[in-house]
Amino acid sequence: MSGASRSHVLLQQNFAFELHGALRGGNCEVLGSDIRLKVSSRAYFYADVSVAGGQVADERDDNLTDPVVIFEVLSPSTERFDRDLKFQRYQSIDSLKDYILVSQEQVHIEHFTRQADGRWRLRHLRSRDEELKIDSIGVAIPIQRIYERVRIGRATD
């Protein structure tokens, strides 16, 4: 997101760094906010960080079609969109197993996990002593590392 706050960028980078290290050598790819996620033939979005199986929608190699995990860092100007329309659209992606919303105003991560019956289970993480466990990709990240160097407080875009 162009013009993001320092906290937003740090959270985004911390996720990408931790995921890249944990997934190195495997089949998954960690991708930043510059790649387009293809949701339908007419809907595309940009996520802050995503983990994918490595497939693209076309030969130009610029549309991601198989995200397994999507991370969004919440900002005052995008929070409602990330929670509502984006999440509704993302749910139509068959490969998506986890949708993770990260607050920059407080230590708070909302982890939505797709269940076998298609419903989504929500888990709240609010302590730096907890771990974010993402079973779909076999990764556990200490919350302390996600919020490393992030100043908690009112976010601005």
Fold and architecture overview:
- By secondary structure, this protein is α+β, with helices and mostly antiparallel strands.
- It has one domain: tt1808, chain A (Alpha-Beta Complex).
- The chain is built from three helices and eleven strands, in the order H-E-E-E-E-E-E-H-E-E-E-E-E-H.
- It has helices at about 5-25, 80-90, 145, and strands spanning about 30, 35-40, 45, 50, 65, 65-75, 100, 110-115, 120-125, 130-135, 140.
- The longest helix has 18 residues, at about 5-25.
- The chain is globular and about 40 Å long.
Shape: globular
Strands of the widest sheet, in order across it, are: 1-4-6-7-8-9
Overall tally of domains: 1
The level of helicity is 10-25%
Low-pLDDT sequence parts: none
Count of β-strands? 11
Q: Let me know the largest β-sheet.
A: 6 strands, mixed
CATH class: Alpha Beta
Order of helices and strands: HEEEEEEHEEEEEH
Integer-rounded radius of gyration: 15 Å
What structural class results from the helix and strand content?
alpha+beta
Any guess at the CATH architecture? Alpha-Beta Complex
Q: Whole-number average pLDDT?
A: 90
CATH superfamily placement: tt1808, chain A
Termini separation: 9 Å
